[in-house]
Amino acid sequence: MIRVGRTNDSASTVAHIGPHGRADSSFPLNVLLVEDNPADAHLIRELLRAVSASMFVIEWVDRLDLALSRLAEGNVDVVLTDLSLPDSHGLETALALQERAPKVPVVVLTAVDDDNVAVEAVHLGAQDYVIKGQTDGALLTRTLRYAVERKRAEGLEFLLRELDHRVKNTLATVQSMADLTLNSSSSLPDFAVAFRGRLGALTRLYEELSRTKSAGLDLDRLVELAVGAHEATSGQISASGDAVKISSNWVRSIGMALHELATNATRHGALTKAAGRVAVTWSVETTDTGRFLRIHWVESGGPAVATPLVRGSGTTLIEEAIAYETGGTVRMRFDPAGVTCEISIPVTGQVASAT
Amino acid sequence: MNDPEDSMIAGNETPALAGVSVIVVEDNFVVAQSLKWLLESFGCTFAGMAGTVDAALGLIDSVDFDVAILDIALDKEDVAPVATRIREVGRRLIYVTGYGDNEMLPEHLRDYPRLSKPVDPDRLVETILETVSEAAPPAPS
């Protein structure tokens, strides 16, 4: 398996995922053989069968269109294809197969006088090529297995790169969050409480996103996670609204705004009193200027509210971040009866009403 | 801007980047905001920030600046149009990226300095100083 903890660089990690790193349960490999010459097709099946009857399951089709529809069904590990078919010729054949199933490696079968085209196909993304009449069962077996392994390693390398990118972005976010919190804290204990709160909210949001494989979060769940640091008062907070899914890139923006509102309510607003209440409601509304997600935060039963003389970093985070990251607007009002906040975000496919 | 060599007046140090105006193109507000503070602490004039390609193009055309700091991965948007526009208006460009390389950019836009995230303040100052001391921005092609 992936031995991330024991190796120092990603390249050697990838190297461990070679032929030995994979569970044998993925055998046999499903090979899609695309070849219009029945004699050639027969020969290849015999070559592979002679090496091992159990390593490959071979499906044979003789046209590109049949190959493409078979690929669309899935469960093909590798394609072995002739480039000249009744309905496609040359590089077009390899490109069409790769485009239909980008994760499935393609190995090109070529005639001895035609290997230039095969090399070109490899440049364009095919994994390898074999020359008809110059291959034996062992070579063909190795070529197909390595094609599968290389393609898997490529995918893994891509994942590691993506992970590296996310880690660095997360570190940058945490660093900046510390700057922002430091800038508005009057003491170190103050800083510690505010920073931990923000980091905790971010952590809960990312945790849930990773659980949903970055497919986005339902807004009611997002509200729960964002105000979750204030669990002692959870009975005082109600949340209801349309079924709405927030896409992953907006989860942080909306989640952190809600977290700041909840923190503010806990420190200065309705949640400082047992009788205090917060109602969070939302809806997707269509107006003349487009569709908007509207989130209302209404506090009641708390102490009399006065407009803060100096707006804290929480208020900045809510108002400016929402405007900057989502193009939305925030109206915060410090009514004597309680703080209210209306967040309005233009919906451009980022927020999808669940059906 | 002031020559950094001349700026070390005893007891009255001019900030390293005094007189340099900078814009920041970065989709995460908190990151952009802290970059703004950092730049201002080095004496930069902060000319604005943008979180999307459209906002960035608008910003480039509406404010005067010497250097643009551009996040390569703007929330899945292609930043090539932003880099191209910065070249066209003859301003300096510095990339910021969480990726180890800049191969997601077209080749003709890769030849600019690159800072890794999270941005190291010393590297930031060095890179800006190097960039503004160049004779002229790379000619548009």
Separate helix tally of chain B? 4
> In total, how many domains does the architecture of chain A comprise?
2
User: Strand content of the residues of chain A, in percent?
Assistant: 15-25%
Helicity level of chain A? 40-55%
List keywords for this structure.
heterodimer, A: 355 residues, alpha/beta, Rossmann fold, Heat Shock Protein 90, 2 domains, 5-stranded mixed beta sheet, 13 strands, B: 141 residues, 4 helices, 5 strands, 32% helix
Describe the protein in words.
The complex is a heterodimer of chains A (355) and B (141). Chain A is an alpha/beta fold and 355 residues long. Chain A has ten helices and 13 strands. Chain A has two domains: 152 residues, Response regulator (Rossmann fold); 167 residues, Heat Shock Protein 90 (2-Layer Sandwich), CATH 3.30.565.10. Chain A is 46% helix and 22% strand. In chain A, helix 6 packs antiparallel against helix 7, helix 7 packs antiparallel against helix 9 and helix 8 packs across helix 9. With 141 residues, chain B is an alpha/beta fold. Chain B has one domain: 3-Layer(aba) Sandwich (Rossmann fold), CATH 3.40.50. A five-stranded parallel beta sheet of chain B has the order 2-1-3-4-5, with helices on both faces. Chains A and B meet through helix 6, helix 9 and helix 10 of A and helix 1 of B.
In short:
The complex is a heterodimer of chains A (355) and B (141). Chain A is of the alpha/beta class and 355 residues long.
Present the secondary structure layout.
The complex is a heterodimer of chains A (355) and B (141).
Chain A: H1 10-15, E1 29-34, H2 38-51, E2 56-61, H3 64-73, E3 78-82, H4 91-100, E4 106-110, H5 115-123, E5 128-131, H6 137-183, H7 188-211, E6 217-218, H8 219-226, E7 237-241, E8 244-246, H9 248-267, E9 277-287, E10 290-300, H10 313-326, E11 329-335, E12 338-346, E13 351-353
Parallel strand pairs in A: 1-2, 1-3, 3-4, 4-5, 7-9
Antiparallel strand pairs in A: 6-8, 8-13, 9-10, 10-12, 11-12
Helix pairs in contact in A: 2-6, 3-4, 6-7, 7-9, 8-9, 9-10
Chain B: E1 21-25, H1 29-41, E2 45-50, H2 53-62, E3 67-71, H3 80-88, E4 92-97, E5 114-116, H4 121-133
Helix pairs in contact in B: 2-3
